Amino acid sequence: MDISIVIPLYNEEESLPELAAWIDKVCTQHAYSYEMIFVNDGSTDASWAVIQGLATQYVSKIRAICFGRNYGKSAALYCGFEAAQGEVVISMDADLQDSPDEIPALYKMIVDEGYDLVSGWKKKRYDPLGKRLPSKLFNATARVVTGISLHDFNCGLKAYRRKVVKNIEVYGEMHRYIPVLAKQAGFKRIGEHVVQHQARKYGVSKFGWERLLNGFFDLLTVVFISKFAKKPMHFFGVLGLLMFFIGLSMAIYLGVNKIISLSTDTPATLITNSPYFYIGLTAMIIGTVLFLAGYLGELISRNSTERNTYLIDEKI
Ligand code: UDP
Ligand code: MG
Measured from the CA of 76, which atom of ligand 1 is nearest? Predict the structure, then answer.
């Protein structure tokens, strides 16, 4: 199979028939063998019924997964990626904001130009300003922190070589950082392609203002995980030891001072009168705790198992 198109959706009943017809038109025109994989992320509208109808209309071109509840876009992508069989896997939002007309260009970049991952870039965006500005800030930060020079990390329209999606684990809200996950998994050829973008035709956006906050925390997580997940001691242990020795040297200073003044018969002040006593004490405690955190982290990372277990109601 040439292409798997993975479409996560949450309450997008109005868009689905149009989207399926458009994808089918483009792929038939280019004579691709393809499958659409709809992942219904716990929709509360008629989305699943619509998909069942589409499955009888586009026989053997549609596969679909129906979650028992809303797990989020990352979970939906994860399960869609797991099911994908195509040589090239393309993820696309269900709300018609991403254009299926981009499929051939993305496919070519993977197959002919040797990219592992090609991310869409909504150069001209049709979203409210309140969403475009934070997004600019977010992308700039992500570029600096991750060292990947993409303009639009969070673009829903992306193409992957199959082995990429089989080797990354998209969980939590990590769909914003798939290029980072891919880079961590060892896929270096990450490209960008300017794509057409449209205003939302039906329904409403599923992400509110929290996306900014969540986005930045996830960025921290991604960077942290990439640097220290497999070796927490390198962060906590080092910091802990440093703190502990700062504290210890203060304690030694106080102790030596006390001994000197005792042996020379000069009046010695109480150790607890010195601020160094309290700073040193605190530093040693914090140092021990940090070290412990690192040690526990090491134990946990040695024992970590699968994170992705989702309740799947039905499959086509
Ligand atoms: N989506 C999803 N689960 C969710 C939220 C969103 O599967 O919990 C899907 C949604 O149906 C759409 C895509 O993810 O196909 C992008 O969502 P949306 O268009 O609301 O995001 P925006 O365009 O506002 O960034
Ligand atoms: Mg959208």
Answer: 7
Residue among 51, 73, 90 to mutate when testing ligand 1 (max atoms within 8 A of CB): 73
Residues in contact with ligand 1 (CB, 6 Å cut-off): 8-10, 12, 41, 70, 72-73, 76, 93-95, 97, 156, 205-207
**Average pLDDT in the 215-226 region?**
77
Task: Give the closest residue (by CA) to ligand 1 atom 22.
Answer: 205
What tens digit of pLDDT does each residue of 246-284 get? 999 999 999 999 999 999 988 878 889 999 999 999 999
**pLDDT of 208 above 90:** no
- For the entire predicted model, the pTM comes to 0.81
* Per-residue pLDDT reduced to its tens digit, 304-316: 665 555 667 778 8
Ligand 2 centroid vs 314 CA: distance in angstroms?
A: 25
Neighbours of ion ligand 2 (CB under 5 A): 93, 95, 97
- Ligand 1 centre and the CA of 202: distance in Å? 12
The minimum-distance atom of ligand 1 relative to the CA of 206 is: 20
In this predicted structure, the answer to whether residue 26 has a pLDDT above a threshold of 90 is: yes
User: Three-state SS string across the chain, please?
Assistant: CCEEEEEEECCCCCCHHHHHHHHHHHHHHCCCCEEEEEEECCCCCCHHHHHHHHHHHCCCCEEEEEECCCCCHHHHHHHHHHHCCCCEEEECCCCCCECHHHHHHHHHHHHCCCCCEEEEECCCCCCCHHHHHHHHHHHHHHHHHHCCCCCCCCCCCEEEEHHHHHCCCCCCCHHHHHHHHHHHCCCCCEEEEECCECCCCCCCCCCCCHHHHHHHHHHHHHHHHHHHCCCCHHHHHHHHHHHHHHHHHHHHHHHHHHHHHHHCCCCCCCHHHCHHHHHHHHHHHHHHHHHHHHHHHHHHHHHCCCCCCCCEEEEC
Å from CA of 41 to ligand 2 middle: 15
Looking at the CA of residue 11, tell me the nearest atom of ligand 1.
11
